[in-house]
Amino acid sequence: MFYFIINNVCDKLFSMEIRQISYFNEFICKGCECPETCCRGWLIPLEKEDLERYSKEKGLMKARLMLAMSEHSIPVFNSSCGECTFHERSGLCSLQVKRGHDFIPETCRNYPRFYRNYGLFEERYLDLSCIEAANMLISHVKDLSLVLAMGEPDCDKTITNDDEPFLNRLLRIRSDMQSALAGVTDFDDLCSVLGAIDSYAMRLQDAYLHGDEDYPDKHPFTYVRSDAGGFDAPEVRDVDRIFPLKAGEITALTDTSIYHIRLRKKNPGLYKLFSLYFNKYRRDLASENGWTRAYTDFGVRHRELIPFFAAYYSYYLYQYWLRIWEDYSFVRHARLGIIHLSMLLLLCIVYEKEHQSVTSAELAHIIAVYNRRAFFSDELLDSMYRVLDGRSANPFTG
Ligand code: SF4
């Protein structure tokens, strides 16, 4: 079951700092031109206001609305996660066509806007499960940044922690990591920066476990491209390589519920890619040698795509790094991003093997179909993260 978690709209209106991705306001839905419509593959939760609005309807419209609703923990449209009953052949939403944009469920109106209210400020992004948002990321790779303004938050506080110094440290670390990612030009760079991020996350986790909350002040994340893999970490040996993940880990990830037969209807783009992988390419890619050869060749042939991969991880940090403010799981959050990036790499390799090319627009498409499947189920994320159980989460305690 997948919800796109949208904001609980804030009932108290007050001003706070709003930090949003610089192109946030430029988003325009592709509408009926969209090749990966979001009217398919999701449960659509209905808010109280939606229910009030729909309960006032009469006649056939009311009948359609009521019949389309199912009860889960809350009322939803599209309970089968197939195609929304209001999605017309033309590619448009019949509710929107007949009654206008304000009539459609709030979830649909907001998508793909992604809000996080940290109490002191709110951050806003465009979620990459939307193909247009993924395209916009690709075209802004060189100028990924947040713009700041005062305004009313769009959602209630999403986190309970109020340790402001810790939040500020997390922000500083995020920014330092993103600076390192912005300098990535080739595949080795990318592997090296991600290795340093993973190593630093382990050190942070260990430091906080032992009560050393000043650790990030005494040892900030600084990445200098060097043969030693950056900052003051021990050299990352290939045996400890975290990105790309090892062949066995990739295979185990593809064996989670990331792929299943129902994707054929819910997410046909991803279904096609995984079908190719399982039916044609898995055998070669399952061995460490085959996998290493595949990603090394890909990195050389598609050097132009590597900054996009780095930007994808950077964007992941924007959206998810501050979850550490709630759960102190440095390693989990750093590694989930690395898992997603490794899976993206796998899907690009499969796509390229099949089509002999992969362009930045095709990469955006792959990002959208992958993110739509992988990011919205805690159960799936837990099972993917468990694949890395064999790795140490703490270099000091083993
Ligand atoms: S996925 Fe994005 S571009 Fe496509 S229909 Fe949905 S909001 Fe519009």
Describe this structure as you would to a colleague.
This protein is of the alpha+beta class. The chain has 2 domains: 39-110, no CATH class; 164-390, no CATH class. The chain is 50% helix and 8% strand. The strands form 2 sheets. It has a 4-stranded mixed beta sheet with strand order 5-6-1-7, with no helix packed on it. A hairpin with a 3-residue loop joins strand 5 and strand 6 (121-126). Helix 5 packs across helix 16 (360-374). Residues 1-11 and 227-236 have low confidence and may be disordered. Bound molecules: iron/sulfur cluster. Iron/sulfur cluster binds at residues 29-30, 34, 36-38, 111-112, 130-132.
Q: What brief labels describe this structure?
A:
398 residues; alpha+beta; 2 domains; four-stranded mixed sheet; three-stranded antiparallel sheet; 17 helices; globular; disordered N terminus; binds iron/sulfur cluster
